[in-house]
Specification:
Radius of gyration: 15 Å
Largest sheet: none
Helix content: over 70%
Number of strands: 0
Number of domains: 1
Strand content: under 5%
Length: about 110
């Protein structure tokens, strides 16, 4: 269950970040509300996840997957640039997080 909640925390953080990009400096109401709801939901879900999983693992996965998804959806939705070197860096980050996750860290 904590892994499902972590996935939901990642999804809500990504939605909040993409809404931040769409909010035009928090000047558009609906995207601005989505930013607040997305971030509050993400941190609330993270708080629940951290009751049973180690903070280092959780934060690494949350951050790495979030960065990769924001870059992908930013390119799709806003045509943001994603240079090849940035893609390589994100692949390395996600691979590193995968290795950390496989290190055998146990739940609380």
């Amino acid at each position: 269950m904590p892994w499902v909640l972590l996935g939901a925390a990642i999804a809500t953080e990504v939605a909040g970040t993409l809404a931040l990009r769409a909010s035009d400096g928090l000047s558009r109401l609906v995207p601005s509300i989505t930013v607040a709801v997305g971030y509050l939901a993400s941190f609330g879900l993270l708080a629940i996840v951290l009751k049973s999983l180690p903070v280092g693992i959780v934060y690494a996965i949350w951050a790495a997957v979030g960065v990769a998804l924001v870059a992908i959806f930013g390119k799709i939705m806003f045509n943001d640039p994603v240079p090849p070197i940035a893609i390589a860096g994100m692949v390395l980050i996600v691979a590193g997080v995968a290795l950390v996750s496989l290190s055998g860290a146990k739940t609380h």
